[in-house]
Amino acid sequence: MNARPTVAVLAVVLRENRLLLVRRANPPDQGLWGYPGGRVEPGETHAAAALRELAEETGIVADAPRLLTVLDFIERDVAGAVAHHFAMITVACRWQAGEGLAADDALEARWFDRTEIDALGASASAQVAAIAALASAEG
User: Fold this and answer.
1) How far is 5 from 91, CA to CA, in rounded Å?
2) How many domains does the chain fold into?
3) CA nearest 20: which of 122, 128, 137?
4) Which residues constitute the domain of residue 111?
């Protein structure tokens, strides 16, 4: 394992009371629904990384990124050692253009309302519903 946590972003886009989710093509969480996102590149701000990852994965153009929260995802191996540690910076982005098409690391892209997100259960990554609640509350 890398001795340092990996810094990554999640782009949370709310449009007309619907949130954009992608079904992940690659680990971690391969096959699960989650927010578009990925690693922050060296020299890149978390806000710029969120907008870049959003565009790469879905073709969505957004602006006005703002911090929602930071989440730690830590996975341990069978011996209890840290196998993966992601510090996920969750960024709310204001939709500008695009419908959301799966590209890059996404198998599918789709807009969900809160009821649909809550119903995803185990087919969604951890914290997807909690992040939806936070984003919806902040409008």
Assistant:
1) 18
2) 1
3) 128
4) 6-133
Give the list of residues 6+ apart from residue 91 with CB closer than 8 angstroms, or none: 9, 10, 11, 12, 46, 47, 50, 65, 66, 67, 68
Indicate which CATH number applies to the domain containing 88.
3.90.79.10
pLDDT (tens digit per residue) in 85-127: 999 999 999 999 999 999 878 899 999 999 999 999 999 999 9
Geometric angle at alpha carbon 83, from 66 and 2, rounded to 5°: 75
Number of other CB atoms surrounding residue 41 within 10 Å: 12
Tell whether pTM > 0.90. Answer: yes
- Secondary element (H or E) of residue 73: strand 61-76
Is residue 108 among the annotated active site residues? yes
Is residue 1 assigned to a domain? no
**Pick the catalytic residue: 41, 75, 99, 108?**
108
